[in-house]
Amino acid sequence: MGGLVETGRSALRSALERVGRGWGRVQEGRPLSSDLLESDDAYLVVFDAPGVRGEDVDVTFLDHTVEVSLERFRDFYDGHDLVFPGRGVSLSGSVDLPRDADVTPEGANATLTRNGTLHVEIPKRGESSDVDVVEEDD
């Protein structure tokens, strides 16, 4: 009877591992959740990035699109074996800024917060100019 129970546990563990790896691939295929916010002087893109370290994040700004890719690693816990590897480790996402956004990549910054979000701030161009008002001649 003990061999049958052990075989059942082994089969269950194997099935959970396959399901978990499949779920991780599904998660990796989905874009990261994000919000796009705007202030008078910048755009702010907030991505969900739980379990990531700063050195494992790549942020690119190209043609009004903020692209993020990240790698996260699973921590090992003493006395525990991984049964269900359900979290994706290679994640990415992108956000398009409005086409009429007048932005500059100079001065852009990215901050990885302790609560697992990545804040990417892209400043608007500081070169605002007043519009001259011209009166027509009579």
TrEMBL record:
<feature type="domain" description="SHSP">
    <location>
        <begin position="24"/>
        <end position="138"/>
    </location>
</feature>
<dbReference type="InterPro" id="IPR008978">
    <property type="entry name" value="HSP20-like_chaperone"/>
</dbReference>
<protein>
    <submittedName>
        <fullName>HSP20 family molecular chaperone IbpA</fullName>
    </submittedName>
</protein>
<dbReference type="InterPro" id="IPR002068">
    <property type="entry name" value="A-crystallin/Hsp20_dom"/>
</dbReference>
<comment type="similarity">
    <text>Belongs to the small heat shock protein (HSP20) family.</text>
</comment>
<dbReference type="Pfam" id="PF00011">
    <property type="entry name" value="HSP20"/>
</dbReference>
